[in-house]
Amino acid sequence: MGTLLDYHNRVRSQVFPPAANMEYMIWDERLAKSAEAWAAQCVWDHGPPQLMRYMGQNLSIHSGRYRSIIELVKSWHDEKQYYSFPNKCSGSVCTHYTQMVWANTNRMGCAVNTCSNMNVWGSSWRRAVFLVCNYSIK
């Protein structure tokens, strides 16, 4: 998971305009454990609800041909094209990207789980690779 942490810090270092108060992201084992518990549920939704008030969360899912862990989060970074600080998203979603680069977010923990059968947008996905990343501030 160190690769994910490095990727996030690289993405954060490339924001434009540069953030004056950008925190360095560190790994948080408690966030990773909560991500692991949620990923094990194999539910394509944010959660658990009682923790969502205290943290942010990005989800990624894939089924089929192998993809690296970085390929699973690259789509979050690609949302950058829809965001221009300080404006809101234009067009498509950019909240995964803003979660990655929010200046005062400095802790993350992720987990990945392979779900044998998972309901995703009304379809059943077999052997779905489900990635959950949780984020928090100091």
TrEMBL record:
Pfam families: CAP
Segments forming domain SCP: 3-138
Entry's family note: Belongs to the CRISP family.
Protein name according to UniProt: Peptidase inhibitor R3HDML
